[in-house]
Amino acid sequence: MNNNTPLISLINIEKRFGTVLANHNINLDLYRGEIHALLGENGAGKSTLINIISGVYSPDAGEIKLNGEKKSFGSPKEAMDAGVGTIYQHFKLVEAMTARDNLNLGNSKGLFSKGKKIDEAIMEICKTYDLEVVLDKYVSDMSVGEKQNLEILKVLYRGAKILILDEPTTVFTPQETEKLFKIMRKMKEAGCAVIFISHKMDEVMEISDKVTVLRKGETIKTLMKSETSPKELTELMVGRAVELSIEAVEAKQGKELLNVDGLTVLSEEGTEAIRNISFSIKAGEVLGVAGIAGAGQKELCEAIAGISKVKAGKIVFDGENLEGKNPREFVKRGISMSFIPEDRLGMGLVGSMDMVDNLLLKSYYSQKGLLIDRKPVIKRALDLKDRLEIKTPSIHFPIRNLSGGNIQKILLGRELSVDPKLLVMAYPVRGLDINTCFTIYNLINDAKKNGTAVLFIGEDLDVLMQLCDRIMVICNGNVSGTIDSKDATREKLGLMMVGAEA
């Protein structure tokens, strides 16, 4: 076998789910010592493809070749045994176990193998790939970056030579992303092949050697990174020219709509997630919130939305104290607020329902009489489907079968269709393709023009600087500073996020 033979080849792969053709005519070659980015809009077939490579699904047609020989994976274990390791967006780790126990889970050596030889083998891999993992540390005590390192170590320890990283930097700070890229470069040097899935175009341009673009379930083109540009890649993804800049909207700011004073909120574990936070937002203003994952952003949003219990402080919206009221009371009292939670399906929408029923959930309590009039809701669903380009076989199709981006568009469309005075958004573009992101930024700008006050929790610092009027930085539950967007830089925000002086 020579070096020109791909480590893995996918030839004319096809996968269908009922009437939906998720993958069609997919062709992809992956070579040793290569970082290969996979790009595509939400619903383009990326998740289905990586599930085929990692043995979760079997293709309906086409073939997979490993080192030039035809291969079929009947299960994820068969794929893993053949050297394919997948690190998913949502980690597959046991929180109540140590790093060592997670590494030994499912190993024939046994769960509680603690021999010196095994530890030495693990530390040798850590040294080779620059991985920092404390073997005796419990997963529940780890940061997001540490958990990711453990996931990578887990697949390398099991002999993976083909690594699939599914949106690995979604909740990373710029510093954590740089650490991950260092590890990926070490994998490349060691002769591994890496598939890198990301919606962050700057990352794709920085780390990848080749880029394959998927559109509507098909491979459109594979390009050398050095011979392409973000503009060309986006146009290939979307199928048309796309404007890649966030419009700077100057909206006239009105009265103060939200005033948060001395707010302290407890986490689910009973610790203080945010402590003594104070800020305000005016009508027509977008206040961004930056912070490393788990700094208290989730609890802040949920306290304002009436979900999390407030320990101390006040939340005053449009002259009314919200403290102690729940979301159902908000609707009954006519409190004009919309909330886009971090957990789209768990908290925002019902996966087994279709678009129409999910839209109906918002207006259900305000409808008069025993019978619910579905006609206006059906009309609104059709309008949203067209306006936001929601890819679904029908407005009566269960939404859990749609891609993350399309689910997010439904949630956003529903919340914005009621013209709220206050819009609270937790990571509204997380995991979304670049075209969908810009659709959502435009929706936020439209809300701003209409005088809506927006609290925008984001993770892309460049977007926060372009979209928001001011940025508040949270570090370990405290506000480490608030800065005008025009005075902000990535470096300043990054330092504030870790509690250093900016």
Automatic annotation (TrEMBL):
What is the membrane topology here?
Peripheral membrane protein
Query: Does the UniProt entry include the keyword RNA-binding?
Result: no
Q: Which UniProt keywords apply?
A: ATP-binding, Cell membrane, Membrane, Nucleotide-binding, Repeat, Translocase, Transport
Please tell me whether the keyword Ubl conjugation is annotated for this protein. no
- Location within or outside the cell: Cell membrane
GO CC field: plasma membrane
| Pfam families, alphabetized | ABC_tran
The ABC transporter domain covers 8-241, 258-501
Q: Quick one: where is this thing mainly located?
A: membrane
Q: What is this protein called?
A: ABC transporter ATP-binding protein
Q: Which organism is it from?
A: Clostridium paridis
